Amino acid sequence: MDLSSAVTATASTLRRRPADLIPFYLLGTAVPVIARVGLFTALAGVYLHFELTGRLATARESLAGLDLTPPDTQDPEALRAWSESLAPALEPLTSPTAIALVLAGTAATATIAILTYAAVSAGQMSAVVARLRSERGLTAGIAGVRDRWLTFLGVYVAELLCWLAVFLLGGIAISAAFVVNPFLGAAAALLVLLVGLVALLLVRTVFAFAPAAVVVDDAGAIAAVEGAGEFVRSNPADAAAYLVVAVGVLVAISSAASALAFLGGGAVVALVSAVVAAPALDLLKTLLYGDHRGSVDPLHSPEASLRAQLSGGVRRGWREMTAFVRRTPGLHALAVGVGVGFGALGWLAVDPFVGAITTSIEGRLVGHIPPVAALNFFGNNWSVAIATSLSGVALAVPALSSVAFNGFALGATAALEENLVALAAFVVPHGILEIPALFVSGALGIHLGSVSWRTLRGHRSRDEFADALEGAFWVLIGVGVLVAVAAFVEGFVSPYYWRPFL
């Protein structure tokens, strides 16, 4: 299969039943939300440690008599004096137990992130190859998470070891040459740089196709690397073409992110790269490798136009979202309870700092540019909603922690606001849409957690779990509509309408 045909087949597969593939790539955006549960748990332990040992009360009493506002100057001496004045008050919060808990939480977060990334990648590639064989992608992806996560972890570890080996061997060669003669060392450094770059390029090319080999050949890590290496040797033009396309996509995304960062579109670009560029590249390399093995059957383009698909998808998403809200009042009540409860906790937690530390909605609105802000609000809030919802597959805990975190942050911000009336006036117009969107995403995460738990216990089939993931995709489209309207109001209405009255 030539590159042009592979690209056409990739686009056709993406357009045919995107809800049977994209949810696993949405799940990829939820990996940080799932992983940070480890750190959140450690921080909760730190808080309990401080509270039970009286350290927190001691710190509060000490801070109550201090000026916590940094000096309004760039004078290093003034800043140093201010920092030194706070040190005695903060000393009770630097216990060895707290440091150990934070370090353990950080390590747990990193470990969870690595394992979750391997599992999600296994699901993504398993869903990709299933779609290319006209099978249900989500069901195959769910099976792939369970059956192939360790293989994918092995592939990633093997690539890391190869990179380390190239750097280590290069370093040894350069060091040995410098011991003999400085001029020989300089020449060796140049040679190692050139050879090393070629070696790293070959490593990356082989390991780019190794995940495809795992799912196409149903192979283990070592066999997959061998299969990918054989493909690169047999089809150097296809491998090079894919590498050029992948680099081009990466450069385009980086350029777009840099350009749109000034227009508030950085979050939108990141989301598009995660749910469009990533599956497209996975489809492309799997098509090339699968065609080499003769084990894929690319799909044809759907008859409906892209515009008709988009408009129909938005309408369906809105219907699915409203139907989900009506079906699950209990889950929404739980999400609201967690959000409001942690909002109150955030309000109470910062009470010792009220007056000493302030936030200002009017200050944050200085330099506000409506279209830039609206695009930024939309990208950030929809990304948060998606990550919150899909993180729920990890038995609902990460979704609940996300709702709790956002509630705590909003409560703390409100408590420290110097003009609470202005903040309320700003929040209400878009908040009546944005806050419910957060609660819907939280309820959706709890729902997915319930389904995943029942699937693990054997009370639900993989097809039923796949149905839940596909339904979640459409609900999130509806949430996106809600977030888009809220972002428009927040960008163009909320900052202005109240100013003549307050």
TrEMBL record:
Top-rank taxon, per record: Archaea
Statement: the UniProt record of this protein carries the keyword Transmembrane helix: yes
Key words, A-Z: Membrane, Transmembrane, Transmembrane helix
Source organism of the structure: Halorubrum yunnanense
Occurrences of domain DUF7847 (ranges): 1-283
Name of protein: Stage II sporulation protein M
TM regions (residue ranges): 24-50, 98-129, 150-177, 183-203, 239-257, 263-284, 331-350, 384-408, 420-453, 473-498
Cell inner membrane found in the keyword field: no
